[in-house]
Amino acid sequence: MKLAFSTLGVPGLPLNDVLGLATAHGYHGVELRAHPEEPVHPGLGPDERAAVAAQFEAAGVEVLGVAGYARVAAPGDDEAVIAEVRGLLDLARDLGAPYIRVFPGGGTEQSAEEADAVAARRLGTAAEHANELGVRILLETHDSHRTGADAMRVLGLVGHRQAGALWDVMHTWLGGEQPSESYAALSPHLGYVQVKDIASAEDTTPLALGAGVLPLTEVVDVLSRHGWDGWLCWEYEKRWYESAAPLPELLGPGREHLARLLTDAA
C-alpha cells in the first residue's frame, strides 16, 4: 500500500512546503483539499494547473485526489451539483489525479430512499464525464451516508465503474460498522482509504495515528488479508480543530506507525 496525507492537515500551506513535507517524511502522495482558501482549487486557470502538475512531478510525489465539497444527495437542483462535480473532475484531469472526493450530504427533510436516488442520479450523470477524462468519482462515507452499507445503497444504483467509494474509517466506526463489514460493503468499488485517529466518539479532535480509539490495526489487517494494495491517506482535520497539534511534527511518526501496521499485517 502507498501512503499519502491530506492538505486538510496543513490548511493554507504553500504547495512547495506541502511537497517538502511529503518528500521529507516518505509519503508517496498528497490529497489536495480543493477549496478557495487553499492553493489548489477549481478556480485555477490552465497555466496555474500546469504549474501545480509540474511541481508534483518534479518532487516525485503523486496527486492522489482532489477532495471537493459537492454534496451529491443534497436537496435542490441537479445541474448545480453536477456542474460542481464536473469542475472537480476537470481539475483532477489537469493535475493528473486519478480521483475526486464528493460527499453525500443528504438532507433531514428527505427519506433515505429519496437521498439515495438523488445521489445515484447525479453520480450516474457525472460518471459519463468522468469516464471521458479517466478520473473516478469517490463517494466518501460521511454525514448522511457514513457507513459502507449506506454508501453501497447509492453505488449499487449507479452501477458505473467511474463511481466508487472513499472509505473514511472514522465515519464507518462512528456508524457502528466493524472494519470487516465496511470492507465487505465497499470493496467492489473502493478507491482509497482515509485513516485518522480520535480520542472518542464524543471527542473527534484529531490525534496522532495510534494515539486514539479508531481500529486502524483491524482496518490494515482486513485490507492486507484481502490483498488490497491501494492508498492509505491520513486525513488530519487540523482545519476544523485549531487546538490540535500541528501536523508536520506528526507526519514522521505517523508514517512509521502505518509502516508497522503494514509489516505486522503482512
Outline of the structure:
The protein has 266 residues and is an alpha/beta fold.
Features:
266 residues; alpha/beta; 8-stranded parallel barrel; 9 helices; 8 strands; 17% strand; globular
Major pleated sheet: 8 strands, parallel, barrel
**Cα separation of the termini:** 11 Å
Sequence of strands across the biggest β-sheet: 1-2-3-4-5-6-7-8
Output the helix-strand order: EHEHEHEHEHEHHEHEH
**Silhouette:** globular
pLDDT averaged over residues: 98
**Total beta-strand segments:** 8
Task: Give a description of the structure.
The chain has helices at residues 15-25, 46-59, 78-95, 112-133, 148-158, 169-174, 179-186, 216-225, 248-265, and strands at residues 2-6, 29-33, 62-71, 99-103, 136-140, 163-168, 190-195, 231-234. The chain is α/β, with parallel strands linked by helices and 266 residues long. Strands 1-2-3-4-5-6-7-8 form an 8-stranded parallel β-barrel, surrounded by 7 helices. Helix 1 crosses helix 9 (248-265) and helix 4 (112-133) crosses helix 5. The mean pLDDT is 98.
